[in-house]
Design brief:
By secondary structure, this protein is α+β, with helices and mostly antiparallel strands. The chain contains twelve helices and 15 strands. The strands form five sheets. It has a five-stranded antiparallel β-sheet, with helices on one face. Strands 2-1-5 form a three-stranded antiparallel β-sheet. Strands 13-14-15 form a three-stranded antiparallel β-sheet, with no helix packed on it. Helix 2 (36-64) crosses helix 8 (209-231).
């Protein structure tokens, strides 16, 4: 079945799968960085673009296939195939977006999504009607299902990793190629066997290949439009209550980062003095907070600061690790630094804050260092080179004046 395909339409089907994957997972990656109402809208849009991308790829590839000239497409199975794809996309993304999912939940969601994609394919294939019937090789059915599950698992990992830019592009390319590979693997294992003609009046409404092309074409433009729209950069948001201390902290970290990147000696007396005399002190006249807000599927909850191991920057928001999982916090990294107790928390990297009492390990790594935070799920946090001396001093490993 693969040998007689139109190469241009095959290439278009792969591109559509890649663009649909990029748009869908790009939108899904933003789910955790929004409020409850926007989260639902983004999740629905992500599921829609993924479903449209996979479904459109399937039927563009079908237009490329050397199927019998008298073949038509039954409307009901064709519509049902899209609904299957949309349903499994939405359910799978919903399952993994409720909270930080376990590996078991990701695997179950990938199985559901992969088998749903495979079901969409075979339901769509059996929407073909004409003077033939279709036979499949069982080995190719199994192989296509395995590829679909693998593509689904990789796609969900894209969502969970919240990749952006080039990494998202590479991951979406792998996803699109895998989904296309699943389709053409299944097509390789099927053949048309001529037989008595079907009566369309008995089996339902049917449309021609040309009519199907008129449906698929605007969907291709929709996917391209969504992809281009996703590439438009978001405006940078500002803190609602900026404080001078926050601005000062950002300036100091920018200077420290510049020193780190230029490779200067960061342990000279002047740098040590700058670093140690500009410790974050929070908002003027405001005591350090004792609880930090985190977003959940049921709303905003609050985590006691004593349970917090680390805080990691994530675009305009942060991820709070409580020793067992990460949850999204609406504060920016500088806002979190300004509001937390500086005697307990320290910003060890431009993107990371750690709880000093909960550091269980520190070791040199490259030009910087890493620390391990204890908990049910211990995790590592990078330490920039300009922060190593201060961190070691606060851990009792060296004198600050050394």
């Amino acid at each position: 079945m693969v040998a007689g395909h139109d190469p241009l339409l095959v290439a278009l089907s792969v591109v559509i799968a890649i663009l649909g994957g990029y748009t869908g997972f790009g939108l899904a990656a933003r789910v955790r960085g929004t409020g409850s109402a926007d989260r639902r809208l983004l999740l629905a849009c992500a599921a829609f673009f993924l479903a449209v991308g996979v479904w459109t790829m399937h039927f563009v590839a079908m237009l490329a296939a050397p199927i019998p000239l008298d073949a038509t497409y039954l409307v009901l199975p064709t519509v049902v195939s899209f609904l299957i794809c949309l349903l499994v996309m939405g359910v799978s993304l919903f399952f993994v977006s409720l909270s930080e999912p376990s590996n078991a939940r990701v695997v179950v969601s990938a199985l559901l999504l992969g088998l749903g994609i495979a079901s969409m394919h075979y339901v769509g294939i059996h929407g073909l009607a004409g003077t033939f019937h279709i036979e499949h090789q069982r080995a190719m059915i199994m192989a296509s299902a395995v590829i679909a599950v693998g593509a689904a698992y990789g796609g969900l990992r894209i969502f969970l990793a919240r990749h952006g830019g080039m990494r998202l592009g590479l991951s979406a390319t792998a996803f699109g190629i895998a989904v296309s590979g699943m389709h053409f693997t299944a097509m390789h294992g099927m053949r048309f066997v001529h037989g008595p003609p079907f009566t369309h009046g008995a089996i339902g409404l049917a449309v021609s290949r040309e009519a199907l092309a008129l449906v698929v074409l605007p969907l291709c433009f929709l996917i391209i439009f969504g992809f281009l729209l996703l590439l438009v950069p978001e405006p940078r948001s500002r803190s609602l209550n900026p404080a001078p201390a926050q601005a000062d902290t950002d300036t100091i970290d920018a200077q420290a980062t510049a020193i780190d990147r230029n490779g200067f000696d960061v342990d000279d007396a002047q740098t040590q003095k700058m670093r140690l005399t500009h410790r974050p002190v929070g908002h003027a006249g405001v005591a350090a907070v004792t609880r930090v807000p985190v977003e959940g599927a049921d709303g905003t909850r609050f985590v006691e600061t004593g349970r917090i191991r680390s805080i990691k920057a994530n675009a305009h928001y942060t991820l709070v690790h409580d020793g067992s999982r990460e949850r999204m916090c609406p504060w920016a990294i500088s806002q979190a630094e300004a509001r937390l107790d500086p005697d307990t928390f320290m910003r060890v990297h431009r993107s990371h804050i750690v709880s000093i009492p909960l550091v269980s390990l520190i070791r040199k790594e490259g030009n910087g260092a890493v620390v391990e935070l204890d908990g049910e799920v211990p995790h590592l946090v990078p330490v920039s080179r300009v922060k190593i001396a201060e961190l070691r001093a606060r851990l009792g490993l060296a004198s600050r004046g050394a």
